[in-house]
Write a structure and sequence with these properties.
It is a single chain. The strands form two sheets. Strands 9-8-10-1-11-12-2-13 form an eight-stranded mixed sheet, with helices on both faces. A hairpin with a 5-residue loop joins strand 3 and strand 4. The protein has helices at about 5-10, 40, 45-55, 70-75, 90-95, 130-145, 195-215, 240-245, 255-265, 275-285, 300-305, 310-325, 370-375, 390-395; strands spanning about 20-25, 55-60, 105-115, 120-125, 150-160, 160-165, 225-230, 250, 265-270, 290-295, 330-335, 355-360, 380-385. The chain is about 35% helix and about 20% strand.
Length: about 400
């Protein structure tokens, strides 16, 4: 795992440009025993060239066999030990939409969902309702609900996602989540995960709010229920720019990923909502920043939808934009995912994630293209995700020698 004290002591600014391009959930699986993964099936001549010229490998976001959530997986990519620095998803959502989260605020990520006449979940994402619908529903909930002795905020995020923030004294983040993570079951009650009076009181307050909220939603055609998950407070993490002596900019569409970037001290760069807009923002801000985090979401979404071909198409769309990135003359480019989301599984998985590291100082290895099995031949073999940014900084000449 990355040692921040050592890295902070070694870090030195030198004017190089470093890009971390994350295709969310890019890792996959074949649909048949003799088939290819989504990344292997995609036509990616530009990334394949970078893989041949650079160094490759596979990374593990959390630990072998552990399927990661998006928050901890991105913290690992940014070199933070996700087990040591555990952050609730609600915090990331709140920061991602620009909410001024105070130290004692308690935040949870909300999902609108659909339940049947028996109260069983039939769609955990309410058909991915449009964001405009989410705006209407969160306003409805803000007006229809109260929390005794506590200020509350119900705010839209994107599509079926929203965030609930509670502001008051004595609130505890030690709570269970309501989402059973499968269809055909009812939402779960919130329970305290310790015996403290604060946790018991907070669980009671939240369950009362949930009852009010579900009553307000019961006649909605699709989003007639909700779930809460990812309880947390701002942990005040060590800041990425201070550790690595860089000015870091984040280019991401979805609020959660903007939130995790903001949490570690990256500046959020504005842009349109398409992948092409994100690459255009990289060009527009190129002179002002040293380190860029560029996030592509649809690879993950198409994997969760179980749509193999659509995920392939997203990867190919990104590949067509790689020449625009390389025309900026970066010093180091690392392309990877935060985790694997195989269309075959329709979910995040524990499978290792391929990465390629291109730089003017890279050691070419046996990989001839960018894919899971080719990257397994790479010089870096299988490493923790937390080691990727130090690798990038080393290739950029941004880490001085350790010891005499």
């Amino acid at each position: 795992m990355a040692d921040f004290e050592v890295l902070r002591a070694l870090a030195r600014p030198n004017g190089t440009k470093v890009v971390l391009l994350v295709m969310d959930g890019v890792g996959g699986l074949p649909l048949t025993p003799d088939g290819q993964t989504e990344l292997e099936a995609a036509n990616t001549p530009n990334m394949d060239r970078l893989a041949r010229e650079g160094s490759t490998g596979l990374h593990i976001p959390i630990a072998l066999g552990v399927s990661p959530g998006s928050g901890p997986a991105h913290l690992a990519l940014f070199s933070y030990n996700p087990v040591q620095y555990e952050v609730g998803r609600g915090v990331l959502e709140a920061l991602g939409i620009g909410f001024d989260l105070r130290p004692n605020d308690l935040a949870a990520r909300g999902n609108f969902c659909t339940v049947d006449e028996n109260g069983l979940i039939v769609d955990r994402r309410a058909g991915r309702i449009p964001t405009e619908e989410c705006v209407r529903l969160t306003k409805k909930l803000q007006e229809a609900t109260r929390v005794d002795g506590v200020e509350h905020f119900v705010l839209p995020v994107k599509e079926h996602r929203f965030v609930l923030i509670l502001r008051g004294e004595g609130l505890s983040e030690h709570l269970t989540e309501t989402d059973p993570l499968v269809t055909g079951k009812p939402p779960l009650p919130v329970r305290p995960t310790d015996d403290s009076p604060e946790a018991k009181r907070t669980a009671a307050l939240v369950n009362d709010w949930i009852a009010q909220a579900r009553a307000a939603l019961k006649d909605e055609p699709r989003a007639n229920c909700l779930n809460l998950r990812g309880w947390g407070k701002d942990p005040r993490l060590p800041q990425f720019p201070d550790i690595y002596q860089v000015k870091a900019g984040a280019i991401a569409v979805y609020p959660m990923y903007r939130g995790v970037a903001r949490l570690v001290g990256m500046e959020l760069l504005e842009h349109g909502g398409d992948i092409e807009d994100e690459f255009a923002a990289l060009n527009a801000h190129w002179d002002a920043y040293d380190f860029f985090f560029l996030h592509v979401k649809p690879t993950d979404s198409r994997g969760e939808d179980g749509n193999f071909e659509a995920k392939v198409q997203v990867i190919e769309r990104v590949d067509r934009l790689i020449p625009d990135l390389m025309a900026l003359n970066p010093d180091v480019v690392l392309i990877t995912g935060d985790h694997s989301t195989p269309a075959a599984l329709r979910s995040h998985s524990w499978h290792p994630v391929p990465f390629l590291l291109w730089s003017k100082n890279a050691m070419p290895d046996a990989a001839q293209s960018f894919g899971e099995r080719e990257c397994a031949k790479g010089i870096y073999s299988l490493i923790p995700a937390t080691e990727l940014v130090p690798l990038m900084m080393g290739h950029a000449g941004r880490l001085s020698r350790f010891g005499a």
